[in-house]
Amino acid sequence: xxxxxxxxxxxxxxxxxxxxxxxxxxxxxxxxxxxxxxxxxxxxxxxxxxxxxxxxxxxxxxxxxxxxxxxxxxxxxxxxxxxxxxxxxxxxxxxxxxxxxxxxxxxxxxxxxxxxxxxxxxxxxxxxxxxxxxxxxxxxxxxxxxxxxxxxxxxxxxxxxxxxxxxxxxxxxxxxxxxxxxxxxxxxxxxxxxxxxxxxxxxxxxxxxxxxxxxxxxxxxxxxxxxxxxxxxxxxxxxxxxxxxxxxxxxxxxxxxxxxxxxxxxxxxxxxxxxxxxxxxxxxxxxxxxxxxxxxxxxxxxxxxxxxxxxxxxxxxxxxxxxxxxxxxxxxxxxxxxxxxxxxxxxxxxxxxxxxxxxxxxxxxxxxxxxxxxxxxxxxxxxxxxxxxxxxxxxxxxxxxxxxxxxx
Length: 408
What we know:
Residues 18-199 form the MacB-like periplasmic core domain. This protein is an alpha+beta fold and 408 residues long. The chain contains 15 helices and twelve strands.
């Protein structure tokens, strides 16, 4: 007796019940896998892109916006701060590394960041080709930028004003590619790095300063430096005690704001966590309902085919073989649902993150760890085994003589 074949025939004999069981269970699995992969992807991005940045100093405004704009490069900056004031703060002995950044332009949607050579150390980025920036209008490409735009050492391009690709406000100065970073799988992969002088030069600060100088507003080069601006200052502390004093001092004694990126991203994670938990609970409820559907389907089969099962017993089949017929049917439905749910979650997240990639030029989709996949698979298997255990109860209590005599 081929038990697998009997189970498959049973499944084919009730297509509507089978479809509903597979559909509802796969919907639950899709939600559970999708939510877990979403959580894993965001957690990876939050932790990985933070690098060694302990503090962000920028213009007054939304603290979260400052972090998203200056650390994750996913929002607009809150404003500019004076470079001279930032340099004064960076001389504090509690600060290990202070890196100014300035941006406001893009090339085909990829942000151009003016900074110093120390910016790359936050992300452990190393050069794959070429050299570092030595003079204005030279740039180093993040690995993703070079790959997507097919740029190489020696190529030149024109940047456009703003953080979104446009053909309206294009600058006249050419930027030259002098280096390409190795892949880091961090935010620097999708940035174009240059020095601060390039950003100031492109935005005609020098021309404006010369004009003011001609009008007698400034008398020497030190005055020119005093009006230069940057977007924000990224800081790494020498010791953790700086966390307690430096942010408060800057917030109270200057017109700038100091923000702890880990704290702000943790708050963001908590806000989004409420929605994720709600969807997770909905998925668990659907999982319970789907297992009840499988139980009803199997139990109905056992009751409706009680005569056939009793007849099999009279021909020598054991109770265990009858239980196997029911169990295999439940397991086949579970396996089909898991495969459909897995494929649906992959397809759904692919299209979701494709939109994110188009908007932010970054692929943030991370593979779901096998541990999480096994956890969800194990949970589904347990629920199906419970449904099977309840459905086989009539087989265990089966009285063959009564069933055969009643059927006659």
